[in-house]
Design goal:
alpha+beta; 8-stranded mixed beta sheet; 289 residues
């Protein structure tokens, strides 16, 4: 075994021992069974009420709902950067932890928001260690867990009781922020970006990133999304609202402008498979908003 591989193996072994010991010493069972929970998609960040604390907005497929979960200011910034495909010049906390897990071959598979007690949301990380059959679950603040899930490409699952409680939280979206739904991340289409990308002079939102079925169908960053279910999204939040209002059991009907022509696309409202945030730093080429 070469020296670098030895140190990687040793680090992984030590982390595994530490995680198992941590789990035993800080045991908290999930408040709901994993199969009971609902997989959701990170949509964007908003504010609770008028000038209240930040919330992450999670899209619940099939229920025509967007569910707000309280988060911290730092986590809100990390989530927005991740949705926008940005990496800070030096790794921030969630990027660093995601890089550490990746470097020692520990996989963050799922994060849970499984309970709400005294108006406090509870979360948990589910880690997969090589050579261990059972996952390791670590108690976590949901805001940390959700931000890390975005960077590590883990799925997010919320207990039904939490969804019901969170629906009572009043929130307002931020029209100038990136928003994701159906695996499509959109941003305002500014005049400068329209000119740089050769976009037509019509209402719509700029496609900033694409994954899942939308990418497989040919939609690409730089497209102008001009219609959702027959209506024109003029802001990123309006795009989310139009997706949310898709009739239950039906596909979302999209129209977009790309490479000089309009194209149509039907997409299921199911949550697309997650993927890690890009590893590129801010000085790398790409679409910036």
């Amino acid at each position: 075994m070469s020296l670098p591989l030895f140190w990687r193996y040793l680090a992984s072994l030590l982390l595994g021992v530490a995680l198992i010991g941590f789990q035993a010493a800080n045991a908290r069972e999930l408040a709901a069974g994993p199969d009971e929970m609902v997989e959701v998609e990170i949509a964007t960040v908003g504010m609770a009420g008028m000038g209240g604390p930040p919330v992450v907005l999670l899209r619940e497929p099939g229920a025509q709902e967007v569910v707000p979960i309280f988060i911290g200011v730092n986590e809100a910034g990390a989530i927005l950067r991740g949705l926008g495909g940005e990496r800070s010049p030096r790794p921030m906390t969630h990027e660093l932890l995601g890089d550490v897990l990746d470097g020692i071959e520990v996989t963050l598979e799922r994060v849970y928001v499984d309970a709400i007690i005294d108006n406090t949301f509870l979360g948990m990380l589910e880690l997969r260690l090589e050579g261990r059959d059972e996952p390791v679950r670590i108690d976590s603040r949901p805001s940390d867990a959700i931000a890390l899930a975005l960077y590590a490409g883990a799925s997010i699952h919320v207990a039904p009781r939490v969804l019901e409680a969170a629906r009572q939280i009043e929130y307002e979206g931020l029209d100038d922020q990136v928003v994701a739904a159906l695996g499509i991340t959109v941003a305002p289409a500014s005049d400068d970006l329209r000119e740089a990308l050769g976009l037509p002079d019509q209402d719509g939102v700029l496609v900033n990133d694409v994954r899942g079925p939308a990418a497989e169908a040919g939609m690409a960053p730089g497209a102008l999304l001009i219609e959702v279910n027959g209506d024109v999204p003029t802001t990123p939040m309006q795009f989310l609202e139009l997706v949310r209002d898709t009739p239950q059991g039906e596909d979302a009907q999209l129209r977009y402008w790309q490479e000089g022509e309009e194209q149509a696309l039907e997409l299921s409202t199911d949550v697309p498979s997650p993927r890690p945030a890009p590893r590129q730093r801010q000085d790398a080429p790409g679409i910036r908003t």
